[in-house]
Automatic annotation (TrEMBL):
The lineage of its organism: Bacteria, Bacillati, Actinomycetota, Actinomycetes, Pseudonocardiales. PANTHER family: ALKANESULFONATE MONOOXYGENASE-RELATED (PTHR30011), C2H2 FINGER DOMAIN TRANSCRIPTION FACTOR (EUROFUNG)-RELATED (PTHR30011:SF16). It is an enzyme of class 1 (oxidoreductase). It comes from Amycolatopsis pigmentata. Residues 22-391 form the Luciferase-like domain. This is NtaA/DmoA family FMN-dependent monooxygenase. Its EC number is 1.14.-.-.
Length: 445
């Protein structure tokens, strides 16, 4: 029997995949954009909508990066509003465990799960940089091991809060109109190296018991954290071979945590470009990449490697002849992509070899090394590839990231989803009410 494909949709806002300058691109902060995107995903019977979190605007050489010019709205506010314009679509938000506090986050997610009748999901992430911490009273930098230790304690504490209401603690006396409440309802006490809290949790047990837990870390500690705690992983391994390796590795970690392979879904982020022919799709994909990597964007990425001010260089000219600077990265503070390149000199030399072999400009090199189109082709070809990935255990489904907001999901919903439904590998109608049911996960009670 064929595996069923899981699909989610990521509202990208303005980031490295977004062609925000395209005339078809609408607002990335007005509610109509979020509502359009969510309604499209629900009409296509997607599992959930996914929002990222931005706790600080990104900077480059002391200036706000152009990808953050529209701002970064609050995740909970947007998801709560979307609960009122959707009825089945799951609502997932990325909320940081490094700078937030368990009581507040648990209260917000429990409330969202009530407001949405059981459709909330939490993507638990850590933050690696002191740059973001400057926005918070605690501030500071946490090493990777400390970040994941705090994340585990944060999630464990939150799960205690979600589970602090037991059975029927609240009984309504209809004659007197008085609610009689068990004095222990919602009571919690948690002490560890990170948190020392005690009191009454204010939100009764929600429809799912707790939100679906997503995780996006890719390090060894991140994978182990997901294997022990998460319901689904938002993975970056969207190519076939890398996807199969990641899938095998993470699923293989589950048994030592007393879990089964079906208890954790692997959902890589994936972009797509559709065309009437394979050649047309490839041409569109190339134009999209050029639009995603403007001249200034190419210089920005190069500065992440060189750790130098490269603003005087021509992005359509040769790569810098100077080598990257060693030491603390001061040019691209707070940019996660800095970590992608590892050894700066090795990366610069690899870029130079690529440019020399094919006479590529700096911008053309960046276009190649940051390529993000996962699926390019006709609707039939894309449907076949997505199905191949899932049936061959390279993924359990995908979190789709369109390059146009908010209408970029429309074509996929109208042309690819029906083909998956015809194959019998994707639902034609929702059969459950909660996100946990959509994902085929066991109830958490």
């Amino acid at each position: 029997m064929s595996k069923q494909i899981h699909l989610a949709a990521h509202f990208p806002g303005v980031n490295n995949t977004t062609v925000w300058s395209d005339p078809r691109s609408g607002s990335h902060i007005e509610f109509d954009s979020f509502a359009h995107f969510a309604r499209t995903a629900e009409r296509a019977k997607f599992d959930f909508l996914f929002l990222a979190e931005g706790l600080r605007l990104r900077e480059q050489r002391g200036h706000i990066h152009d990808l953050d010019v529209v701002g970064r709205p609050d995740t909970f506010t947007v998801l709560a509003a979307l609960a009122g314009v959707t009825s089945r679509l799951g609502l997932a938000g990325t909320i940081n465990s490094t700078f937030n506090e368990p009581y507040e986050v648990a209260r917000q997610f429990a409330t969202l799960d009530h407001l949405s009748a059981g459709r909330a999901a939490w993507n638990v992430v850590t933050s690696w940089d002191a740059f973001t911490g400057e926005n918070f009273r605690r501030g500071g930098f946490l090493a990777e091991s400390d970040r994941y230790e705090r994340a585990r304690a944060f999630l464990d504490t939150s799960l205690e809060l979600f589970g602090s209401w037991h059975g029927d603690e609240i009984v309504a006396d209809k004659e007197s109109g008085v609610f009689l409440t068990d004095a222990r309802a919602g009571w919690f006490k948690h002490q560890d190296a990170h948190f020392d809290i005690e009191g009454q949790f204010t939100v009764p047990r929600s429809p799912q018991g707790r939100p679906v837990i997503l995780q996006a870390g890719d390090s060894g500690q991140g994978r182990e954290f997901a294997a022990s705690h998460a319901d689904a992983i938002f993975s970056r391994h969207s190519t076939y071979d890398a996807g199969r390796d990641f899938y095998t590795d993470v699923k293989g970690r589950l048994a030592r945590h007393g879990r089964r392979p079906e208890d954790l879904l692997i959902l890589p982020a994936a972009t797509f470009v559709l065309g009437d022919t394979e050649a047309e799709a490839a041409e569109i994909a190339h134009e999209v990449r050029l639009a995603q990597v403007s001249g200034p964007t190419a210089i920005t990425f190069a500065e992440h490697v060189w750790n130098r001010d490269l603003s005087a260089y021509d992005p359509d000219g040769p790569l810098p002849a100077v080598d990257p600077l060693d030491g603390e990265h001061t040019v691209a503070r707070g940019r996660a992509s800095v970590r992608m390149f590892g050894d700066r000199l090795a990366t610069a030399n690899e870029w130079r070899e690529r440019a020399a072999a094919r006479n590529l400009s700096l911008r053309e090199v960046v276009v190649e090394v940051t390529a993000r189109q996962s699926f390019v082709g006709t609707p039939g070809e894309v449907a076949s590839e997505i199905n191949r990935f899932v049936q061959d255990d390279a993924a359990d489904g995908f979190v789709l990231v369109p390059h146009i907001t908010p209408g970029g999901l429309d074509e996929f919903a109208g042309k690819v989803v029906p083909l998956l439904q015809e194959r019998g590998v994707f639902r034609a109608e929702y059969t459950g009410e909660t996100l946990r049911e959509h994902l085929g996960l066991a109830a958490r009670r």
